[in-house]
Design goal:
The structure holds two protein chains of two kinds. The radius of gyration of chain A is 14 Å and the shape is globular. Chain A is mainly β. Chain A has no helices and twelve strands. In chain B, strand 4 and strand 5 form a beta hairpin. Classes of the chains: A mainly beta, B mainly beta.
Chain lengths: ~120, ~110
């Protein structure tokens, strides 16, 4: 069955620390997409990254980086030198299926608190 | 470029009433999806509309329905409200929707059922 697991419910770090948010997924499909979203207190989910199942290249965007490993079905997200503004709930999501009957499945989220 | 807008932002209703939520997608986006977010169940997919047709549906009772207009704006309706319907309802738009497309979310409508 399709599933996205974010085992870390809440993480607290001190500003400038690096932090990694874990995401493990389950799918039987060979073609799928993985996403990370940030949900600040305002409630709106902000798109961070999309990765397809055929592209295992890691990606870096400023202080953010993503490590996609199909062998372990993981798509982890690292924030380097965290800042207070990074405090939010972060969701990992999986989309799979066909365009007509696809599923978009979210993990339960990891609440990140960055303390000044 | 304007983002996804949702109205109203907050709503209080009583059990048994019905409610209609509205979502205006990003200009040029033809797909609109709706999600329910609750502390207990997390983010759950409700349905997706594309070109005025429901294309995909999650596992929710028939009390939850929606529609999409020719300008891609979408409405979601919940009839005979129950306490458990209290949630943040998020709308997401994408260019064509489906498996490969990225969804951009609105700020949500927080519904409280008393």
């Amino acid at each position: 069955a399709q599933k996205v697991t974010q085992a870390q419910t809440e993480i607290s770090v001190v500003e400038k620390e690096d932090v990694t948010l874990d995401c493990v997924y389950e799918t039987r499909d060979t073609t799928y997409y993985l996403f990370w979203y940030k949900q600040p207190p305002s409630g709106e989910l902000v798109f961070l990254i999309r990765r397809n199942s055929f592209d295992e290249q890691n990606e870096i965007s400023g202080r953010y980086s993503w490590n996609f490993q199909k062998s372990t079905s993981s798509f982890n997200f690292t924030i380097t030198a965290s800042q207070v503004v990074d405090s939010a709930v972060y969701f990992c999501a999986l989309s799979e299926g066909t365009s007509g009957t696809y599923k978009y499945i979210f993990g339960t989220g990891t609440r990140l608190k960055v303390l000044a | 470029k304007a983002g996804v807008t949702q109205t109203p932002r907050y709503l209080i209703k009583t059990r048994g009433q019905q409610v209609t939520l509205s979502c205006s997608p990003i200009s040029g986006h033809r797909s609109v999806s709706w999600y329910q977010q609750t502390p207990g169940q997390g983010l759950q997919f409700l349905f997706e509309y594309f070109s005025e047709t429901q294309r995909n549906k999650g596992n929710f009772p028939g009390r939850f329905s929606g529609r999409q207009f020719s300008n891609s704006r979408s409405e979601m309706n919940v009839s005979t409200l129950e306490l458990g319907d209290s949630a943040l309802y998020l709308c997401a738009s994408s260019k064509v929707g489906g498996l490969t497309d990225t969804q951009y979310f609105g700020p949500g409508t927080r519904l409280t059922v008393l």
